Amino acid sequence: MTTRHYLGENTKAILNALDSNGPMSRDQVVAATGIERDTVRQYLRRCAFRGLVTADRTVNPPVFATKPGWQAFLVTTRPPDKPKKPRPEPVTTVAIARQTQPNSVFALGAHQ
User: What's the CATH fold of domain 9-73?
Assistant: First the structure.
């Protein structure tokens, strides 16, 4: 899993709920954010992996809390996408297709 510094909207909502309300269980996070239960579970797991939250698993259900300094991961803009490769012009593609040599016996009959 790649660690990135851009936080999505669901991650921000979960972290803000944990930060403002203090340590909470998964069901309390669901009630505070309105995000689906399985989605919250997955995002909490990812946040724990990235070091943004701590999970106290000595109690049942586990209680999650934000780590100090998680706001440093907030980036205002999404990183730019990779530049797209330029597509060859259609004329070039046709010229390349005409220059190819037959690669099978069947292509010999169709090649004029």
Answer: Arc Repressor Mutant, subunit A (1.10.10)
